[in-house]
Design brief:
The complex is a heterodimer.
Chain A (H helix, E strand, L loop, with lengths): L3 E4 L2 E5 L4 E7 L6 E6 L5 E7 L2 E5 L2 E6 L4 E6 L8 E8 L8 E3 L3 E6 L1
Chain B lengths: L4 E3 L2 E4 L5 E6 L6 E7 L6 E7 L2 E5 L7 E4 L6 E5 L8 E8 L10 E2 L3 E5 L1
Chain lengths: 111, 116
Amino acid sequence: KNEVEQSPQNLTAQEGEFITINCSYSVGISALHWLQQHPGGGIVSLFMLSSGKKKHGRLIATINIQEKHSSLHITASHPRDSAVYICAVPNYGGSQGNLIFGKGTKLSVKP
Amino acid sequence: EPEVTQTPSHQVTQMGQEVILRCVPISNHLYFYWYRQILGQKVEFLVSFYNNEISEKSEIFDDQFSVERPDGSNFTLKIRSTKLEDSAMYFCASSGGEGRTYNEQFFGPGTRLTVL
């Protein structure tokens, strides 16, 4: 079974700062999810990526399959980015099946 | 854009009562999942469902839990006799459709279950 570690657990930033959240996992996969959870509890899928890099607006996600590591970057952070960011991977490796989730990184961006 | 929906958004029940949580997955998806998140903890897998049967379930998914796809659109999670420790946010997810990659899961907004 896969294990997922995220760091940091908590992150406070000033508006405009560049943010990096890290995720590592133990079993080789070919697809990784980055998710955003708002204070109300709802989950939104930000990215699913298999290799290289994906960009959506101010969010950039990278993955290194060989090193079993992914990062989520936020450029020019804004208070509305304040949320919990969660990394999730297939529990048994590969690219499908049930997901196992990291504990999440709680991001707070101050104006 | 198609999305997964869940009802109700919040359910309050008494211990020992039965609850049914409802989900409408994205219409052409074939794989369905239930996850839950106890307050302050990480999201955990409960069960996956494909081709009208359970494909995998976790240790959490004991005899008190059941899932059903009663028609072509709904996917339900039933808890027969709720316990205090069932209080959590329950998320439904779906993935997979013809002609598409099957591995991206799309999540519903969740149902917050409170057992008193």
